[in-house]
Q: What sequence folds into this?
């Protein structure tokens, strides 16, 4: 049972444009969500997180939106840069359980 | 560099052999986690420690797997009698220990079982 889903395995965007990566979840108990970026042969790097008490969190070029009623979150990258090309994972957690449930990832390619 | 470190980065072994991986967390972090990632999948939780206590183990962690964190600092993950299905990236993460915790990952150990 895949509790966290990233239905787009890949995405290509022109440099300077917006990248939007999507993630859906099924467990309404999840209350903490994160996005990680992963380059080949490296571990995931933390990007940004959001608690379920908020619907938006920004950090520089990265913004995460949370729609609890739709059980959906998205990561916006503006403007996209070639160095953003990587696999992006969303993860969800229930406070106090300490384990993350990851999606299967979306490979983003930013074209120069 | 004060990030999470893992050793070795790559390990090739023959089926039936035992392997051990080491993880050194960020120094002030009291929680340590092990995940496994296979091709095309996201990381899957295996187990976690708070200080030296192992508090949760996934059903993915068969009897051939054992993890320790003897002094609440570094951790080891041992796989006995390796099988080809154990081939994966083994990731370690650590966190500070607050309620809404952010886990920081190491570079991983890639295991190939021939």
A:
């Amino acid at each position: 049972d895949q509790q966290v889903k990233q239905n787009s395995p890949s995405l290509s965007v022109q440099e300077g444009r917006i990248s939007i990566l999507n993630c859906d979840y099924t467990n309404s108990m999840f209350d903490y969500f994160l996005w990680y970026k992963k380059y080949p042969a490296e571990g995931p790097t933390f990007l940004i997180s959001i608690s379920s008490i908020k619907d938006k969190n920004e950090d520089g070029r990265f913004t995460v939106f949370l729609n609890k009623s739709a059980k959906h979150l998205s990561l916006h990258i503006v403007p996209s840069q070639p160095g953003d090309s990587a696999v992006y994972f969303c993860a969800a957690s229930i406070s106090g359980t300490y384990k993350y449930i990851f999606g299967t990832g979306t490979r983003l390619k930013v074209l120069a | 560099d004060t990030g999470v470190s893992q050793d070795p980065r790559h390990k090739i072994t023959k089926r039936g052999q035992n392997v051990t991986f080491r993880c050194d967390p960020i120094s002030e972090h009291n929680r340590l986690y092990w995940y496994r990632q296979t091709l095309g999948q996201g990381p899957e939780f295996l187990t976690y420690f708070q200080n030296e206590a192992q508090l949760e183990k996934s059903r993915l962690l068969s009897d051939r797997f054992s993890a320790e964190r003897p002094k609440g600092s570094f951790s080891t993950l041992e796989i006995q009698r390796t099988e080809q299905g154990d081939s994966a990236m083994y990731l370690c993460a650590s966190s500070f220990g607050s309620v809404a915790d952010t886990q920081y990952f190491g570079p991983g150990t890639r295991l190939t079982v021939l």
